[in-house]
Protein: Tryptophan--tRNA ligase
Organism: Marininema halotolerans
Amino acid sequence: MARVFSGMQPTGDLHLGNYLGALKHFIPYQEKDDCYFCVVDLHALTVPGDPEALRKKSLELAMLYVAAGVDPNKATLFLQSNNSAHAEAAWLMQCVAKFGELGRMTQFKDKGQGSESVTTGLFTYPVLMAVDILLYNTDEVPVGEDQKQHLELARNLAERFNRQYEEIFTIPEPRIPDTGARIMGLDNPEKKMSKSAASPANYVMLLEDEKTIMKKFKRAVTDSDTEIRFDPEQKAGISNLLSIMSVVTGKSIPALIEEYQGRGYGHLKVDTGEAVIEALRPIQQRYQALAKSNEIEAILTQGAIKAREATSETLAKMKHAMGLVTF
Ligand code: TYM
C-alpha cells in the first residue's frame, strides 16, 4: 500500500484545471492506497488576503474535496494549519534548502516578478510544500504539470537531508496525468487556466452555473482553420478542448478527432461544454447538500487527529537528527 499525499490552495475558487489536472485523479487512489489530502491554508497566507475569506474558502475547499469523491472513511482530509508539524518542519527544512535554488523556482519568479515587497513566505513556499509531502513519508504525489519543479525540489531536499543528517525521508514520485495535466485558459489557450487570470472568461469554476459554463465554452478561443488535430503548439485552443473532453468522457484523443473531423469547431465546443456540465452536476449537487449540513467539521476534526498521528514520529526523528534535544 503506497502513501499518497496531495494538496490544493484555498485561494479563489477551484477551476476545471484543478479538477482535471489534480482532484479527479486523487479519487481512485483511496481504493488501494493510504491517502492524505490537504487544504493547504498556510500556503494561502503567502499572498495578502482577507482572514474571513480564507476561513470560508478553506471550508469550501474541504467540502469540494468530499463533493468530488474524497471519502473520509477511506482517505484522511485535513487543514494544513491543524497539524503544526508542517510549520515546524518547514523551519527545519529551510535550514537545509539553499537561497539560490529557491530563487530559481519559476512560480516564485512569475508571482513575485522581481518585486522586493513580496512576502518571504512566497519565497520559502516550496520548502513548506516539500515538508507537506516528506513528513508523511509519501511515495506518490498526484499533481498537475505546474507543480513538477516543486516536486523536484522536494526530492532534492529529501536526498540532501538523508545524506547530510540521517536516512529519514522516502523520495516521493510525482504522478502527473498524461492528459489534462495542463488545462489552458479558454480565452487564451497559450496560457494555463488560472484563478488569478485577469478575465473570468479564462476559467470555468467547479461551482459555476450551467448557462455560464456553456457560454464560456461557446466563446472559447480557437484558430481560424477548420481541421481538428491535436497539436498544442499550432492549435492550442482545439488541443485544449480535446484534452478537456478526453479527461471528462474517458474517450481517447484519436477517437475524438475521428468523431469531430469535418464537423466544424462549433460542435466540439458545445459538446465539450455539455460534457463538463454533466461531469460537474453531481459534484455541485453533493456540494450543496454538504454546505447545508455541518458534516465537514467532524470530517476535518478526525482528519487533523490522523494527520498529527501520521507525522509525529518523522518530525521527532528530523529534530533529533539535526541535533535538537527534546524533554
Ligand atoms: P494549486 O492550489 O495551485 O493547484 C492545485 C492542483 O491543481 C493543479 N492545477 C492544474 N492542473 C491542470 N491544469 C491547470 N491549469 C492547473 N492549475 C492548477 C496543480 O498542479 C495542483 O496539483 N503548491 C500547490 C499546493 C500544494 C501541494 C502540496 C500539492 C502545497 N503543498 C503538497 C501537492 C503536494 C499549489 O499551489 O497548487
